[in-house]
Design brief:
mainly alpha, 2 domains, 6 helices, 78% helix
Length: 180
C-alpha cells in the first residue's frame, strides 16, 4: 500500500472535479443556461468562494465570465505544476511550455466535456426522460449551441436526428488534428 500514491490520486481527483465544476459554470453562463435549475445552483454555490473575489479583479466581458475562465486556467496550471513537482521534485518549468501545456489541457478538457455531453444527450434521447428534469434541461442547453448548426447541415431524416454523429466526428477530427 502506497500512501503517497493514494494521496496523489486524491489530490489530482480533487483538481479534476473542481476544474470540471468551474468549467461547467463557465459553460452554463456562456450558453445562458437556466440559473434557477437546481444543478446550476449547486455549481454556482460550489464555485462562488474563489470566483467572488476574483470577479472584483476580473470583470466579465460580453456575456463571457472571464473570471471563471481565468480560474480554470489557474487550476490547470496549478495541476501541471503539482505533477511537475511530484515527477521531478522541482517546479522549474519554462513559462512558454507551461502555457502551451495549459492551453492544450484546456482544449482537451473542453472537447471531452462537449463529447461526453453529447453522448449523454444521445443516451437521454433513447430513454426519453421527463424533458423538465433538471439534468436533461442542462445537457440540452449546453449542447444545443453546437447541435443547432449541425442540424442545419444534416436535418432530421425520417424522425432520426443524426446531427450528434456529425458533431462527434468533428470533435474527434479536431482531437486527432491537434492530438488532444
Amino acid at each position: 500500500m502506497d500512501p503517497k500514491g493514494a494521496f496523489l490520486f486524491l489530490l489530482f481527483y480533487a483538481f479534476d472535479v473542481y476544474i470540471f465544476l468551474v468549467l461547467t459554470r463557465f459553460l452554463l453562463q456562456l450558453v445562458r443556461a437556466d440559473f434557477y435549475n437546481p444543478i446550476s445552483q449547486f455549481v454556482v454555490k460550489a464555485t462562488n468562494p474563489p470566483l467572488k473575489p476574483l470577479r472584483k479583479l476580473i470583470p466579465g466581458y460580453g456575456g463571457v465570465d472571464v473570471a471563471a475562465l481565468v480560474l480554470v486556467v489557474a487550476l490547470v496550471i496549478a495541476k501541471i505544476l503539482t505533477i511537475q513537482l511530484v515527477g521531478s521534485g522541482s517546479m522549474a518549468i519554462d513559462p512558454l511550455i507551461l502555457m502551451t501545456a495549459a492551453l492544450h489541457e484546456i482544449a482537451r478538457l473542453m472537447l471531452n466535456y462537449l463529447f461526453w455531453s453529447i453522448v449523454l444527450r444521445i443516451v437521454l434521447s433513447w430513454i426519453a426522460p421527463d424533458p423538465y428534469n433538471p439534468m436533461v434541461r442542462l445537457v440540452t442547453q449546453i449542447t444545443e449551441p453546437v447541435m443547432a448548426p449541425a442540424r442545419r447541415l444534416l436535418p432530421p431524416m425520417g424522425g432520426f436526428d443524426l446531427s450528434p454523429i456529425l458533431v462527434i466526428i468533428a470533435i474527434q477530427a479536431v482531437q486527432a488534428l491537434f492530438r488532444l
